[in-house]
Amino acid sequence: MAEQVTVPASHTTGSPAKARSLNVRVWRGGEAGGFHVFEVPRLESQTVLDVVTYIQRNLDPTLAYRYACRVGMCGSCAMNVNGKARWTCRTHVAEVERGDAVEIAPLSNLPVIKDLVTDMAPFFDKWARAKGQFKGASQRSDEFARVMPDSPQRMRADAAIECIGCGVCYSSCDVVSWNPDYLGPAALNRAWTLVNDARDVSNSERLKAVAGDAGCHACHTHTSCSERCPKHISPTAGIAGLKRAVAAALKGDL
Amino acid sequence: MKTRGQILLWLAQRYSAMVLAVCVVAHLITIIYAVRTGLSAEQILGRTRGNFAWLVFYATFVAAVAVHAPIGMRTILSETLRLRGAHVDIAVLLLGVVLALWGWRAVFAVFQ
Amino acid sequence: MKNDYRARSHPAYWAFVVHRVSGLMLTLFLPFHFWALGQALAGGAAVDNFLHWTQQPLVKAGELGLVVLLAAHVAGGVRLLTIEFLAWHEWQKSLLAVAAGVTLVVGVAFALNLA
């Protein structure tokens, strides 16, 4: 299918020959869409989010995309850049451009709403299915829970606790692509932090929820999740831990 | 299949893998030894015939493979061909039975 | 959207591909292996005919391939078993290189005696 090319208006005026431009392929439409090509001025310290924003503000206001903080804290701007899931606000064009070309597409493994926007509902539904919510038994009147930060259990939880639910790992996981029921790295990672939370009381339900063909046992240690996580979390480690925890629980109450 | 069954399948595959790790290392050493010392097939059979230790070793090897390979195939069928469900489980179970029977026949063949 | 090769270009992914392909090929090979060994039941001519067939260069190459597949599968498998059954350690990352190295050594050891 022929790709459309859009060039910014400023390029038709007699601007200095030194101005560089970037050839950007951007996904347009839904699941059955296509790439549209834009030419964007190449600037110093430009991020991929800058590029997408430039396109929407100057070239095509109908481009749909998500962002919020633009400083690498919220995870809203996650997209596939040159085939790899990344936070676009923290991806310098200089890191990813291939001879003045960049390809931007929505995250994989999620329904495409429009252009670069995906429906995150399945991602968070699986988080809930993996029992990724804390459940305690203390009352207001009880003493504070005492959890030593250097206890092995707490250190395991802390190594995985910084997840902000951006979806990069989920997008990167091929088992999610091959097995639609697979809970995925983020949901399992969150379950792992709670399995290691000494205050949580719902572990037998949680281990049941994360086990089996749709759970931790489906992970084949591709480690794509850990490779791509912008917070340097290793869901691979957490999922391996869940496998051990489930096996141990099997002897008891599973 | 219920979750508990799926967990047991996974455990069976990993435990059979541990048995196979030992068997395969022994098998590879045997193969390389035989090839390096230029043992002929007659000479190899001479060592396995009537040898109870080899019988037990190979019978165990076959049993472990008959558990390990079908469970692996079940995953491949599910992920690559999107084939899932009871009929797939039965098919791989049959594969396991076939491997076990044919394998033990082969073990007997080199023992008798 | 689905991922393509660009999302898969890291060593642990290649290790997975090697493990899966080797496992599949070994499973397909096994029935033939068991049948061939079972020929010893018929004895005499059946065994001799089979052995004669195995002398062909293509079969010898196939044998090398199978030994490499088996070595790769068990080496990669041991790596996975340590990751899944032992607590998470930094040295587990080096296991990939170790597995590849062991596979190579086994393959070479076998190949050196084929000529």
Brief digest:
The complex is a heterotrimer of chains A (254), B (112) and C (115). Chain A has 254 residues and is α/β, with parallel strands linked by helices.
Provide a descriptive summary of the structure in words.
The complex is a heterotrimer of chains A (254), B (112) and C (115). By secondary structure, chain A is of the alpha/beta class. Chain A has two domains: 5-118, Roll (Ubiquitin-like (UB roll)), CATH 3.10.20.30; 121-250, Fumarate Reductase Iron-sulfur Protein, Chain B, domain 2 (Orthogonal Bundle). In chain A, 33% of the residues lie in helices and 14% in strands. In chain A, the strands form two sheets. A six-stranded mixed beta sheet of chain A has the order 1-3-2-6-4-5. In chain A, strands 7-8 form a two-stranded antiparallel sheet. Chain B has a single domain (3-111), classed as 3 helical TM bundles of succinate and fumarate reductases (Up-down Bundle). With 112 residues, chain B is an all-alpha fold. Helices cover 87% and strands 0% of the residues of chain B. Chain B has helices at residues 3-36, 41-48, 52-80, 86-111. Chain B is elongated. Chain C has four helices and no strands. The longest helix of chain C is centred in the N-terminal third of the chain and has 32 residues, at 11-42. The N and C termini of chain C lie far apart (49 Å). Chain A binds chain B through residues 175, 178-179, 208, 211-213, 215, 217, 243, 246-247, 250, 254, and chain B through 1, 3-4, 6-8, 10-11, 78-80, 82.
- Rounded to the nearest angstrom, the radius of gyration of chain B is 17 Å
Largest interface: B-C, 32 and 33 residues
CATH topology group of chain B:
3 helical TM bundles of succinate and fumarate reductases
* Helix and strand pattern of chain B: HHHH
Number of self-contained structural domains of chain B: 1
Q: Please identify the structural class of chain B as seen in this structure.
A: mainly alpha
Q: Catalogue the unreliable spans of chain A.
A: none
Overall number of structural domains of chain A: 2
The helix fraction of chain A, in percent, is: 25-40%
Largest sheet of chain B: none
Number of strands of chain B: 0
Main β sheet profile of chain A: 6 strands, mixed
Quaternary: heterotrimer
What is the name of the CATH class of the largest domain in chain A?
Mainly Alpha
Count helical runs of chain B.
4
Count the beta strands of chain A: 8
Q: CA-to-CA gap between the ends of chain A?
A: 53 Å
Could you say what the CATH topology of the largest domain in chain A is called? Fumarate Reductase Iron-sulfur Protein, Chain B, domain 2
| Broad shape of chain A | elongated
Architecture of chain B in CATH? Up-down Bundle
